[in-house]
Amino acid sequence: MNRKSRLPRIFFCAGGILLLSLISACSGPEDPGAPRTGSPAPAKPMAALAQPVEAIGIALEVEDGAGMPLQIAAGGRYFIDQIDLRDSVAAAVDRGIDGLKGESAFAALHWGTPVLEDTHFLVLPNADGTFTRRRFYGDADWIRLDSVMTVEQLDRDGAPLAGILRLPIGAAAPDRGEDAFFIRRLRAIQWTYDCPMRDDCMGAKNFLEEALVELRHARRREAFELHERTAALRLRWSLLPGSSWKIPVHQVWNPEYAYGFNIDIETLTSPGADGSYAPGSLVEFRITLRDGTGRRLHPAGSLPTYNEVISGAVDSGIQYYRSFFDSSTVYYRRKHRERMLMVQMIGPAQNVQPIRSVVPLSAFLAADDDVQHIGLPGRDGVFADFMTFPVARDLFGGSFDPEHAPWNHPVSDIWKFTIPPDAVPGTYLVTAKGRRVYLGQDIPFTRTIDLQVGTAERTTTTLDTGPCTDCHSGHAALANLLHANDNRAACIACHAPLEFELEGNVHVRLHFIHSRSDRFPAPLERCSTCHLTAAGMSRVSQSACLSCHKSYPEDHVAQFGPVTDMYVGASEGSFAQCTDACHATHPDSGFD
Ligand code: HEC
Ligand code: HEC
Ligand code: HEC
Ligand code: HEC
Fold it and tell me: pLDDT tens across 443-457, in order?
């Protein structure tokens, strides 16, 4: 690790809400407890700045009973922003999730009567031609009941060092504002990896049962000082009083980078004299990932290769898509840990609308194009492109190559979008999203810049949903949640349906998450909670309705086919409009 830069001196001070003006009074304590990385920097006087020092959110993880070791900057103030607990047992017979009750670290939990809530088959077959089925269970007592997590600091000998941090995680019920985390997702999943058909697991022998606790987006940010002798954090859960998990802590004295995450987008191609780009232009952009102080996380010109990132060789915290290794599933499993770095462009703003054309897998593997063309103005009424880092043929193609050779390909920090020759003039939105995982902090960032196309006059999007802020405010604001994006005009290019993930679509995701959650604090059938007009919900499709509903009447089954996909209803055809005569309104929708 290169030690040229140092964290601000504050990281060597202890104390409550410190002011930076006090920094020069602090001295860097030696670190008698933990193994050392570098040594404290000498105290230097600093200009007075009346800024309270913000505590840093950290993510804790326990995997099959073992706390995942954590490196944290020494001497800082922290709060718990995320907890992931997972336990699993393999099985050769289909016993639902009963193995978890008998054999796992979660066996001692009160199980009550878990309910199978949803079943989903992955669209793409496995390498050997079999299919994967997931069954999602809820309603077990431990999933439903109110409970509390606690965190303590321990020294090298396991003795507690400071007070106990109490984190009430609430129940499977709307948050009363007292729960420690906005997102509380507890569930059990049965995986079947060798189903002979996409709708049938007869004869399967390869099962995995897992229990998951996913807590994120701290709303109570009780900060604690990291004690200089802390060598572990001990996590306990009130529902498992006989267990505790030790998360080894390695204190890092001179971290190379600061906490925080920023993404810059720079336009390298100059616009015309009026500041706008002509339809048909090729526009070159540069992405730069930085820490919270603006220090770049990679050299100019390149980003790390995929293999460098997944092997853990990258110290700066840059992340790429990792669902190959830790599968993620909308709402039900670890979508926050998918960590895709990607960019999109959509426009013109006045024509932004849902994209319902399915992006084929072949678009991700095309040899001659880095960019996926999502929205075609003639077909979709809006232009939209996206691109992933590394480019999709390397990223996804690498998973189909037994040698994974494309995962060693260089990754440029430059990309190009071509504005179509028939582009409608207006403001186009270019957005980049990513995640950084650095010294215990696991955070998203999204940046959107505007680009004028064919006119200097700015245009805007009129949304027919929103404003969403009744529930998404404060720490749960869309600017903080998920990928930290509160510009809802800029959701749709990344969120088109994909051949291998039909639920990519944004209305499917939003209906699904809010309808499956027990935490949605409004009557679900009252569409007017999110929809501003009845007209905005008049385009009836399987995907629009079956992203909340799990079934429809027999005559619908006969006419439109059975419900086979928990997210979108059926297959690619789920996005087609089924009627413009029926369902102009919804019972109790809030619209007359
Ligand atoms: C630059 C691309 C991009 C943009 C823009 C974008 N998303 Fe996403 N979104 C993703 C990716 C990729 C994921 C998968 C998780 C990850 O990698 O962060 C995701 C995941 C999601 C999920 C699933 C979360 C879960 O828990 O299962 C929802 C819901 C979502 N996005 C909604 C939105 C909304 C609403 C907006 C606009 C305000 C938006 N997205 C903008 C790329 C994007
Ligand atoms: C009546 C309250 C309410 C309204 C209105 C609401 N939400 Fe939510 N939203 C929630 C709750 C509660 C959750 C957490 C669900 C869970 O994890 O159990 C959530 C979760 C989400 C997530 C997932 C975040 C993640 O990290 O996975 C996204 C994205 C989101 N909402 C976007 C929106 C958008 C966009 C709108 C407006 C169109 C909206 N919400 C309107 C209550 C609301
Ligand atoms: C949690 C917020 C939320 C709730 C509650 C909600 N919707 Fe939606 N819905 C959305 C969002 C966001 C979109 C996408 C809007 C867009 O992109 O223009 C959408 C889109 C739709 C669409 C259009 C799909 C398409 O192809 O364009 C329909 C139809 C729809 N919703 C029906 C309903 C009905 C019926 C209800 C009530 C029973 C409902 N929604 C409740 C958030 C919500
Ligand atoms: C945001 C979630 C959501 C969406 C989207 C949604 N619904 Fe509903 N719908 C509900 C809820 C909740 C109820 C009331 C409880 C129930 O009967 O399931 C309901 C009730 C209904 C009923 C009355 C059922 C009965 O037996 O009384 C019909 C019919 C219906 N929905 C049709 C639709 C159609 C058609 C669409 C798509 C245009 C749609 N819904 C979209 C949540 C939704």
Answer: 999 999 999 999 999
